[in-house]
Amino acid sequence: MVARKPVRYLVATLCLMVGLVATFRAVCAADGRDFSRSPLYAYPLPQGKDNIIGSLITYHIHKGDTLLDVGRWFGLSGAEVSDANNHLDWWLPPVGKKIVLPTEHILPDGPRTGIVVNVPEFRLYYYKGHVVYTFPVGLGRYDWRTPVGKTFRVTSKQHNPPWIVPPDIYKEHLERDGWAEHVIPGGDPDNPEGFWRLNLNLPEYAIHGTNNPWGVGMEVSHGCIRLYPEDIDRLWHLVPVGTKGEIVYQPIKFGWRGGALYVEVHRDVYNLHPGLWKLAMRLVAAKHLQSIVDYGKLQKAVSAMTGVPTYVMPGPPPPGSYNAEEAGLEEAKTN
Fold first, then answer.
1. Judgement on whether residues 100 and 170 belong to the same structural domain of the protein
2. By percentage, how much of the chain surpasses pLDDT 90?
3. List 105, 222, 224, 266, catalytic entry
4. Active site residue 288
5. Which one, of 146, 126, 151, 149, lies nearest residue 136 by Cα?
6. Which of 248, 268, 302 is the last residue in one of the domains?
7. Is 329 part of any domain?
8. In sequence order, what are the residues at sequence separation of 6 or more whose Cβ sits closer than 8 angstroms to the Cβ of residue 44?
């Protein structure tokens, strides 16, 4: 077992979120974006029927910012920030532009225990006691899908794992590049698994780091679950061997906070549903929400797929709720 290095990161709670913006700017100025100092995002589990964690933040783009760097500091992927802001350019966002950081999440339906990976959301949740930790992840490409609906168990943990290239991936690399390696040593900067790996009882699948942080939030792997280097370091040290988990597929989630109903909509990345509007209607019926939903608001949320909890009851939204106009979204059209 590797000894835990001294803790140098913050645990993000609701009262700290505003201060994180100033901290990010200070770190950028002093260290040129040292993400080992970024916060660990952990929240107390909501009580009663509430199932929303975090809160939204607004941020003004500075010179040199990319959505990848901004998102990474705030526990997000560049894709999540872009989707929440009308598909803003990842690499050249306009200096001075005010954006919404989608640091608010509806917990997936199901037991709040162990590890839960929600594929359409590209997000991992780890429940430990009365706290939930959450991290953005990279997942399997369409032709190498992360296995949906599977339960698993963490069987072992490795630091600096060697990557023994599976035969089918070796063949793919050989055909693509004209050459390929059978093994990439642990600790090698070209090792796509990074420096930490949680082995699972799912053959050929694992939760590990990456040598390409931009791939977090995207379909880039051969089915494994990838985290930012700093995030897998933290998760590796938090999760004991024997921890159970599940890979779910919930592109639409309904959530409550203080008596207000929200919906969070993501892309159907593996095209498992005939239509997101049909899925939304099935969920409304299954959750007995027909009499309280504003269907016009719900249609816009389903069409926009911002990935941000959006208020879908009649009347004005509660203070602090997502504002589509502020994020620059055009009037949504329902297919």
1. no
2. 72
3. 224
4. no
5. 126
6. 248
7. no
8. 13, 130, 131
